[in-house]
Amino acid sequence: MPDHTMLDETWALDPAVALRPEPFGALAYHFGNRKLIFLKQPALVAVVRALGSGRVVRDALVEAEVPEAARPAYVAALAELAHSGLLLRVEDGEGAAA
Questions:
Q1: Secondary structure of residue 24 in the 3-state scheme
Q2: Number of compact structural domains in the chain
Q3: CA distances from 66 to 13, 14, 26, 35, 78 (A)
Q4: Domain limits for position 57
Q5: Containing H/E element for 58?
Q6: Helices and strands (H and E) in the chain: how many
Q7: Which of 18, 32, 80, 81 could link 86 by a cystine bridge, Cβ 3.0 to 4.6 Å?
């Protein structure tokens, strides 16, 4: 079940993660825990990149033009990325990762 509280939180790509564009979306590699994750939807890549600008998840979904009906699935995917260590929650006043 997606974490709906995540919608109003600010998240960012861990600075130890590199995204490599691919025709299907992107490869995300975490240099710290050595995880390699395939982001198989270009829209998900757009959401992840938008998060790096200090936006809350809800705003990143809107910016990436994710249809409202599809947003729960995207929140679930973002929660999995957070669980894998690719995304970090940005606390108030910290600023987003570059």
A1: coil
A2: 1
A3: 19, 22, 17, 26, 13
A4: 4-89
A5: helix 57-63
A6: 3, 5
A7: 81
